[in-house]
Amino acid sequence: MELLRKLYKVYSPSGKERAMIKLIWNYTKRITGTKVETDAAGNLYITKGEAESYPCIVAHLDQVQRLHSKDFLPIETGEIIFGYSSRNKRQEGLGADDKNGIWIALKCLEKYDTLKLAFFVSEEVGCVGSGKAVMDFFNDCRFVIQPDRRGYQDIINEIGWTSLCSPGFLQAAGYKKFGYKETRGMMTDVQELKERGLQVSCVNLSCGYYEPHTDHEFTIKKDLMNCLSLVEHIIENCTDTYPHQTEILDRRWRSYDEFDEAVDEIFALLDQGELWSVEDLYYMYHSVFPQLDMEDYRRIYTEYYNLNKIEYGEQKL
Fold first, then answer.
1. PANTHER family given for it (predicted)?
2. Quick one: how far is CA 14 from the chain centroid?
3. Are residues 226 and 266 in the same domain?
4. Across the strands, what pairs with 56?
5. Which range marks the domain in which residue 301 is found?
6. Are 242 and 166 in contact (CB under 8 A)?
7. How far is CA 251 from its chain centroid?
8. Helical H runs in 125-209?
9. What angle do CA 53, 156, 170 make, to 5 degrees?
10. Taking the mean position of all CA atoms in its chain, how far away is CA 153?
11. Which one, of 100, 119, 96, lies nearest residue 41 by Cα?
């Protein structure tokens, strides 16, 4: 966990990722056979080895949290890691969204002879880095994996009504052996890459962080390690190229801005302790958020109660 603790200690808010870039650059230089490049936006591109095709992992460099004291430390208690400032006697967010993804990428870089990585700036403020990414970098990639999803069991195959991957890739990935299940997700870099013309399958994976974007964020190490094991399994077993032509399933809205706003509103309502059904939520808010359908409200409702089970220790560890 030494590398993970180093990543957590680096404060990297959107637009100020220089310290994180420096850490990754210096860490990568010591790994034989790697080439590190950057672009005008500040994104990092890493290639290891020579191959006709490469597995590829991407993650983002920035975090949301504003609190990060000079004495900030990641604290490990059994299976859980959280951030804490002794001087201020308060919990502070780790930025595990998406430092967990960075950690997985770098661990795989150490292990495998051929691999590509891309690290993007300013994902949290609208996928700025991936929106300016050098797309030619991905021309010889077999698939693209982004570990950038809270929780422990989601494999995202669709974001914002944009399909991400082929059924053949999902079958080859063997995700069910690791307790994962297919679901839809929210805006992140792989969606941006697909909409900019990425021609291979990609997915976003839960990687063991919880309560992202808050100062109560924490990581469950077991879930992080399970994600790493799944990523390694995909790299070792998905040796073909998995082409996938982006299919825009519904272009009612390209981003999840309205969905995010609805999540905030509905979570605040449910926090008041009243018992509401999915149907109640739909009839209360459908005029406010007309682009959301009943399935969206069902997803928000389920996500809220799943998060509260985790908070009160009901998740099976």
1. AMINOPEPTIDASE, AMINOPEPTIDASE YPDE-RELATED
2. 15
3. no
4. 116, 144
5. 257-311
6. yes
7. 23
8. 128-131, 167-173, 189-195
9. 50
10. 13
11. 119
Same domain, 233 and 306: no
- How high is the pLDDT of residue 274? 67
C-alpha span between 17 and 13 (Å, rounded): 6
* CB-based contact 117:46 (threshold 8 Å): yes
The pLDDT tens digits for 147-180 are: 999 999 999 999 877 899 999 999 999 999 999 9
Distance of alpha carbon 174 from alpha carbon 233, whole angstroms? 8
287 in the same domain as 184: no
Phi, psi of 91 (to 5 degrees): -80, 140
CATH of the domain at 23: 3.40.630.10
For residue 90, give every residue at least 6 positions away whose Cβ sits within 8 Å of its Cβ, in sequence order, or none.
Answer: 67, 84, 215
Q: Which two tokens stand for residue 41?
A: 């936006």
Strands (E), 122-240: 141-149, 154-159, 162-163, 181-185, 202-206, 209-210, 218-220
Give the C-alpha separation, 78 to 223, whole Å: 13
pLDDT score of 273 more than 90: no
d(CA 40, CA 304): 39
Same domain for 193 and 56:
yes
pLDDT at residue 62, rounded to an integer: 96
Domain count, the chain: 2
Helix residue spans in the chain (DSSP H): 2-9, 18-29, 96-111, 128-131, 167-173, 189-195, 221-237, 257-270, 278-285, 294-311
Torsion angles phi and psi, residue 220, rounded to 5: -100, 115
